[in-house]
Q: What sequence folds into this?
């Protein structure tokens, strides 16, 4: 299995820190956010990693080179010309993530999520017949994926704006379970053929909602799960404490 880390974001909610460094290189608990992800991925037995880059891309490349790629095979998907969002970023990285001699699934994660997830358990839980397995949890947020009682994705909602988007097979939200996305998923290599009609820039959330009526996309709830999204500057002190529990 290969992995992809989304590290191209501007980190605007972490200004002024991200005025001079990319979000991926922010230090938390003695390690950069990127190193936290790479270490967890390496410990799960994955050595081939693709990192997408846009904001201060050379700093990320130099950081990996200085650390001898942490003993891994790291390649970069360069989005310097334009940020492609999560769906477009994954689609662009296809040549780096796929091998014509292999149809192995791909672990995908956001660089700014710290968690205690057992990646080997997640990898074991992924069913090859599913187009994706997305890590979710019961936590308070504004946007939720909606699942049926088999944890198959059926839609999405924004509880603040009251927007609801459902699979073509569903007529209402009734009976569906709201779970928050945790910024980590495993995707089948078959996902790239389904992405071909999409533009260069699009959200993976939009893709999942558009696809869930035709393909099986399953939710995965880790046991005893703890996670933190390092999305805002006011979260950094809390993140330092949280990192000590991992």
A:
């Amino acid at each position: 299995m290969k992995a992809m880390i989304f590290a191209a974001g501007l980190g605007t909610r972490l200004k002024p820190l991200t005025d001079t460094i990319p979000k991926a290189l922010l230090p938390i608990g003695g390690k950069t956010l990127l190193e936290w992800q790479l270490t967890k991925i390496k410990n799960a037995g994955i050595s081939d990693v693709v990192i997408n880059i846009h904001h201060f891309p050379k700093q990320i490349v130099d950081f990996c080179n200085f650390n001898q790629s942490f003993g891994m095979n790291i390649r970069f998907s360069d989005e310097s010309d334009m940020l492609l969002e999560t769906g477009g970023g994954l689609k662009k990285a296809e040549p780096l993530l796929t091998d014509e001699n292999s149809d192995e699934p791909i672990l995908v994660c956001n660089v700014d999520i710290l968690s205690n997830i057992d990646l080997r358990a997640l990898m074991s839980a992924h069913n090859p017949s599913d187009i994706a397995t997305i890590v979710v949890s019961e936590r308070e947020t504004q946007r939720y994926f909606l699942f049926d009682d088999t944890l198959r994705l059926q839609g999405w909602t924004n509880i603040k704006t009251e927007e609801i988007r459902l699979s073509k097979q569903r007529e209402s939200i009734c009976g569906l379970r709201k779970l928050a996305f945790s910024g980590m998923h495993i995707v089948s290599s078959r996902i790239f053929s389904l992405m071909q009609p999409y533009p260069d820039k699009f959200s993976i959330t939009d893709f999942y909602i558009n696809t869930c009526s035709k393909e099986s996309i399953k939710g995965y709830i880790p046991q005893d799960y703890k996670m933190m999204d390092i999305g805002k500057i006011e979260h950094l002190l809390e993140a330092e404490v949280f990192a000590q529990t991992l």
Residues 160 and 178 are 14 Å apart (CA to CA). The first strand starts at residue 2 and ends at 6.
